[in-house]
Amino acid sequence: MERKAPAKAWLLTDGNAGNVRQAEALAAAMGLESPHLPTLAPRAPWRWLAPRRMPGARHAFGPGLASALARGQPPEIAIGCGRQGALAGRLAREHGARAVQILDPRIDSRHWDVVVVPEHDRLRGGNVVTLLGSLNPVDDAWLERARQQFRALCSLPRPRTALLLGGPTRQAPWTLQTLETALSDLRAQVRAESGSLLATVSRRTPAAVSAPLHAAMQGLPGVVWEGAGANPYPGLLACADRIVCTPDSVNMLSEACATRAPVYVIEPGLARGRAGSFIASLQSLGRIRATGGDLEPFEVTPLRETARVADVVRERLGL
């Protein structure tokens, strides 16, 4: 029997790019067409304790969501991501929606129909679906669209090395000195191979990274993106023969590992907590290797959990 997409779906997040990306990726993989993203304007005191439901919670996100629910117009499916999205999903469920929550809401999962969490979180339950890493849109079709959009990148000399820079975190406290060492080694290899280097930063990348990054790029074919103009990040993933990442972002590593390129992580041993557990899982699967010495190619299997999770969620919801 052919599955029919629900007529209406909401994606409920705090607007954080990582949360929006995960919600959009799941909705797309589930075949939900043109899901609506209501504007959430979290208000005190509810935003402080979300997703716990305090009296008057229907006003927690401003008049837009409250009026939509009051009019009896809930979506068939509400996909929330993050704590604010979790509370909004609860409210939508109370008005008849089926609620899917992405990321651990830190309270009992019974308040949602399905909860999707990374394996490195501890939450388990009958309605909990786990995955390795995070939800993302990267598959062969997504990569092909990116190659068509960023053809100039794919014409750069091979091997093409994509460098994805996040920022130091409590769970992955890499230093500028750590990065400078990795950049020096990377520059030497790219020059020896007559290849190219394609680098991008994130919002969390320290400003001090700019100088050593430009020094490493000096005289090499390639591109560096530091926030001005369109972000070529999809093109970097699509055109890379290898990918080098800092160890701080589960989302970034998940997307890199969803490609067919070997992935190398700068000082993976620095990562601890959830980031460390995720990196250890990738290492045990042979999906990533540490930088240091020559970055020799190795065979990989793309890490693509989103389609599997979408199938499980559809089944749980009876779609």
Overall description:
The protein is α/β, with parallel strands linked by helices and 319 residues long. Helices cover 37% and strands 15% of the residues. It contains twelve helices and eleven strands. It has a six-stranded parallel sheet with strand order 8-7-6-9-10-11, with helices on both faces. It has a five-stranded parallel sheet with strand order 1-2-3-4-5, with helices on both faces. α7 links the parallel β6 (160-164) and β7 (196-200). α5 (140-149) crosses α9 (233-239). The chain starts with 8 loop residues before the first strand and ends with a helix. The model has no long low-confidence stretch (mean pLDDT 92).
Strand order of the largest sheet: 8-7-6-9-10-11
Low-confidence stretches: none
- Radius of gyration from the alpha-carbon trace, in angstroms: 21 Å
Using the alpha-carbon principal axes, give the shape. Answer: elongated
**Beta-strand fraction estimate:** 5-15%
User: In which range does the helix fraction lie?
Assistant: 25-40%
Strand and helix layout:
Blueprint: E1 9-12, H1 17-29, H2 46-49, H3 63-70, E2 77-81, H4 82-94, E3 98-102, E4 114-118, E5 128-131, H5 140-149, H6 151-154, E6 160-164, H7 176-193, E7 196-200, H8 210-217, E8 222-225, H9 233-239, E9 242-245, H10 250-257, E10 263-265, H11 273-284, E11 288-290, H12 306-317
Parallel strand pairs: 1-2, 2-3, 3-4, 4-5, 6-7, 6-9, 7-8, 9-10, 10-11
